Amino acid sequence: MTIAVAYKWAPEAQEASVDAAGRVDFSRAKDKISDYDAVAIQVGRRLADATGQALVGVTVSGPQAGQPVATKAALARGLDSVLVLAEEGLDRIGPSATASLLAGLVRQLDDVSLVLAGDSSTDVGARMTATLLAGRLGWACLTDVEQLDWSGSDWSITRTQTWGVETFKVTGPAVLALSPTAAAVKAPGMKDILAAGKKPVRPVALTDLGLERPDQGETRATARLTGPSRQGVVIDVSDPDAAAAVLVAALRQSGLLVEGSQE
Amino acid sequence: MSFELTDEQLITRDAVRQFADSTVAPIAAEIDRDHRAPLENLPAMAELGLLGMTVPEELGGSGSGTVSYVIAVEELARRCASHAVIVEAHSSLCCWPIVAFGNPEQHQAYLPDLAGGAKIGAFCLTEPGAGTDAASLTSSARRDGDQWVLNGQKVFITNGGFADVFVVFARTDPEAPSAKGISAFIVDRQTAGLTVGDPERKLGIRGSSTTPVSFSDLRLPATSLLGREGQGFAIAMRTLDGGRTGIAAQALGIAQGAYETAVAYAKERIQFGRPIANLQAIQWMIADMATDLEAGRLLCYQAADLEERHLDFAIQASMAKLFCAPMSVRVASSAIQVLGGVGYTESYPVERAYRDAKITEIYEGTNEVQRLVISKSQLR
Fold this sequence. Notes:
The structure holds 2 protein chains of 2 kinds.
Chain A: E1 2-6, E2 9-11, E3 17-18, E4 24-25, E5 31-33, H1 35-51, E6 54-61, H2 68-76, E7 81-86, H3 95-107, E8 112-118, H4 129-137, E9 140-145, E10 147-150, E11 155-161, E12 164-170, E13 174-178, H5 190-196, E14 201-203, H6 206-209, H7 240-253
Parallel strand pairs in A: 1-6, 1-8, 6-7, 7-14, 8-13, 9-13
Antiparallel strand pairs in A: 2-5, 3-4, 10-11, 11-12
Chain B: H1 7-34, H2 42-48, H3 66-79, H4 81-101, H5 104-116, E1 121-124, E2 140-144, E3 147-158, E4 165-171, E5 182-188, E6 194-196, E7 210-221, E8 225-226, H6 232-268, E9 270-271, E10 274-275, H7 280-308, H8 314-339, H9 350-358, H10 367-379
Parallel strand pairs in B: 1-4
Antiparallel strand pairs in B: 2-3, 3-7, 4-5, 5-8, 6-7, 9-10
Helix pairs in contact in B: 1-3, 3-4, 3-6, 3-7, 4-5, 4-6, 6-7, 6-8, 6-9, 7-8, 8-9, 8-10
């Protein structure tokens, strides 16, 4: 049995910059394992150890995802091996095409019991890939998974929604997108980093999967949201009552507080 | 010629940076303020493998290599110099001489526990009357049957407050010329006759434990001798060669952290209607700091790379330390200057960096000793 983890070698969001027009620029951001997917790998490692399964990473992206530093970074986090589809242009395809290719990789594996993924990615943040992947595979899917354990006969899943806590039992194969709160991600250990170079990496080509190059190119542009700008009002809070009155007056003046609304 | 780090070195940098950002940085100011060692972080540092990087894999370490090791020290120091020096004293000054000069029995007895963090190490060379002139040390070890009897006083022992294993240098032959009559020993903390004094209150690296350690008729089995009798001074000097690369890395990390704070501040601080980063006075300071860091990093990594490849590295280690230590003080000072008044307060970590940087000009060989070592190699 195998637990697969779909991960992304993605630009570090904290190294992105925003230009004057509000466009997000990742060109100077260094690639790394997406923080969301690091959660999935760590949870996967725990479950694989608990159930005696192999933990295999699958990823689809441009050639940079196939470089040794990228695969070793993933393997150092606890994967036993990785399947990598890394070809020119695949870092610019959208979530639907990515899900199709990930499904192709998952089908290359024997006896997969679960596919885990991060809830999102640090660059695109579409939060769709896991759901679309489940659709391609015809498997069950849950997102926002906070807790995941093997009971001996099924997967026990917990997630928190705005209306309360939900629990699920899943027996068949499923795709689960893990909440960032599902694990406090630890840095890979020094021994894990050295061991990563000895683990198997299996490059896979589109032709191996019998798939065509997706023509689902995607052009993304971002722009600053229009909305209220800073008014630069500084309120002296030494007298709290007077400060509250000044704040209310400022909010009324800006139109954010109207007569009849609760103050 | 390649200036590229390997995949493993790059991943080590990211891993230790993640750890330093998430676990070290949140307590760095507090341990500095309270003059206390971050004992709560030692298990996590051990789990990450930071305490076994200079120990081979077969003895419980990771055998990560010297370049990865200095990268780890640098990344820790970027957030907290005290965490860095705890690792440095443990790894470079205690684990390393046991690896290099210990016999197989000593390897098995000490290294798995040290590498795994079950025990912490320290290095006892300096005495009240023997600092830079280490060969004049007066601690003594006298043979008594199949035992050694150790007496003496050591000072400024990093990790002294909580270390379990001490590499101790003592005079075993009072008749031999000063450096020749010194031997090294491995001493367990619980040995009767070992006393650890009160920690020093210091200008910087306040989260590291710096204590006196004294020995009063402390009895050691003959098997405690590290290396050969009379080889102690050579062991100490060879150990300090490697330690100097570690201190250069510590200085580099302190400077890097201060520099990053200065750059971020310069981009955000508005004066005269624009970020101060637009002012040439600030730009020139940033340029000088960046250049200093680049030069220091090249020297430090070069020394580490030579050591990793088992080539002569002692002079390069001295050069790396001689450049990086004052560079760290200089960069931290410039960072305070960029921040202005708030840089002088505890609101930002640059004042701590400035205090922490100063010690790198002093310990494991002062700037002056490094000049002595370097000039001697050039003029022979």
